[in-house]
Amino acid sequence: MSLFAKLSSYDDRSARLAGIGLMLLSIFMFSVGDAMGKFIVATYSVGQLLWLRACAALLVLLPMVWKRRADFRHLERPWLQLLRVTLSTVEVAAFFLATVYLPLADVITYYLAGPIFVTAMSGLLLGEHVGWRRWTAILVGFCGVLIALRPSAQTISWPAMIALGGATRLTGSGLSITEWKPVTGALPPLTEAQWTQAFAGYQKIPQYRELNAGMTLAEFKTIFWWEWSHRLLGRVIGAAYLLPFLYFLWRGAVSGELGRRLWVIFGLGALQGGVGWWMVASGLSERVEVSQYRLATHLVLALLIFAAIVWTLRRLTDRPIVIAPLRLKITSAALLLLTFLQLYFGALVAGLRAGRVYNTWPEIDGGLIPSADRLWFETPWWRNLFDNTLTVQFEHRMTAYLLFALAIAHAIDAVRSRAGGGVIAGAWWLVAAITLQATLGILTLLHQVPIDLALTHQAVAIVVLTLAVLQAERFAARRTEQGQPNLVPAGQSL
C-alpha cells in the first residue's frame, strides 16, 4: 500500500492534518527551489539552470513515465500538448531570468499575482462570466500587488502595454536603446562589456549630450530597463497573439468575418512595431526627444489595436438587440471618437511636456481662456494645434470638458429612454471613469506631473477607452445567424 493510500485510510481529522502537512512541505520545497535557482543564476546561465532542472526531474519521473509509456502513444491533441510544454518552459525561463535583475521577493509577488490575471483573462478571452464581485476582487488584488511591490524605475509597474509605453515616455527612457533589433534585441546586456557598448551608443545621440551629460552607467541602466521592458512586452504580446492565431487558422477553426478582423489586428500590430522605431528614430540625430507627431501616432495606433481587440471579443458573445433611439447610438459613437481625439491630444501634451508649463486650474495662463495672441502666434495658424504648448494643453482641457458633458448627457438620455439595464449601467460607468480621469488629470497638472499620478492618469485613460468601446458596441447592429463569424471545432472542415 502506497503512502497516500495509507493516509487516506485514516480518519478525517488525520487525513486533513496529513494534507495540511503535505501542502506545507510542498510550499517549503517550492520556496527552497526558487531560492536555489536565484543562487545558481548568479553564476550560471538560465539555460544551464533549466538543463539541470530537467535532468533532475527526469531522474525522479522516469520510473513513472516508463511504467505508463503506452499512454504517451495516444495523446489527445498532441500539438496543444507541445504548445503547453513550450509555454511552460518559457514561463520557468522567464521566472529565473527575472531573478537575475529583480529581488526574489518582487519576482515571487509578481508570480503569485497570476490568479488575478487568469481570472481577468478568462472573461476577456474565454467568455466566462466573471461578475462584478470578482472584477472588484481583481482590482483590489492588483492594487495590493502594486502596494507590495512599491513600483520603482526598475520594475514594471503596470501590466498594460500602453501604460508601460506611457511610463517609458514619462521617465525619458524611449531613446535609451538606439538600435532596432527585433529578434536579438530581446536579450538585454548580460556582461559589463555589453552594458558599456549600449551606453556608448546612447552617448552619441543629442539627448545625452544636451540633457543627460555626465550620466553614470547605473543611471543609464535605470532608463534602459524601462525601454527594454516596453519592447520585450511588445514582443511577448505579438507572439502570444500570432502563435495561437496561426494554429487555429491551420486547424480551420476561424473563418469569415472573425478571421478578417483577426488578420486586421495582426496587421496593425506589425505596423505598430515599425511605427515605434519610426518614432524613436526621430530623436536619434537632431532632436533631444522624439517627435510629438510620431509619438501621438504611435499611441493612437496602440489604442486602435486595443479597441479592435475589445470590440472583436464583445462581438463573439450573444446578447439581445438593444432597442434605443437613434440619438443614443449617435452619442455613443461620438463619445468613442471624442475619446480617441482626447487621447491624441494627451499624447501631444506628453510629447511637448506641456503639462509642466501651465500648472494652474481652472485658469490657464492667467485666465479661463488664454489670449488669442498667445494661442495663435505661430504661422501658419494650424501649427499651434500641434506645436504650441499653450494651445495643446488648452485643447486637451476643452476636449475633456466636452467629453464629460457629452457623457453625462448620454447617460441621462439613456435613463429617460429606458434603453435597458446594460446600456444605462454602461453609460454611468463611463461617466464615473471620465470623472475619475478628469480628477487625476487636474491633480497631475497641479502637482507638476509626478510620475505616479501621471501613470495612473494614463492607465485610467485605457479604462475610459474600454468603456467607450463597450458602450458603442452595444448599439452596433448585429449580423443575422447566416452572417455571423464561423467558429468550428478545431480539426473539422467548414
Structural notes for this entry:
- The chain is mainly α and 494 residues long.
- Among the domains are: 3-70 and 79-112; 320-477, no CATH class.
- It is 70% helix and 1% strand.
- It is built from 19 helices and two strands.
- It has helices at residues 3-8, 12-40, 46-67, 78-101, 104-112, 114-125, 131-149, 161-170, 192-202, 206-210, 217-250, 256-281, 292-315, 326-352, 372-375, 384-387, 389-416, 421-446, 451-475; strands at residues 254-255, 486-487.
- Strands 1-2 form a two-stranded antiparallel ribbon.
- Helix 12 (256-281) packs antiparallel against helix 13.
- The longest helix has 34 residues, at 217-250.
- The two termini are 52 Å apart.
- Residues 151-164, 166-170 and 480-494 have low confidence and may be disordered.
The main sheet comes to: 2 strands, antiparallel
Strand order of the largest sheet: 1-2
Q: Which stretches are low in confidence, meaning pLDDT under 50 for 5 or more residues running?
A: 151-164, 166-170, 480-494
Mean pLDDT: 76
| Rg over alpha carbons | 26 Å
In terms of DSSP E residues, the strand content is under 5%
- The class by helix and strand makeup works out as mainly alpha
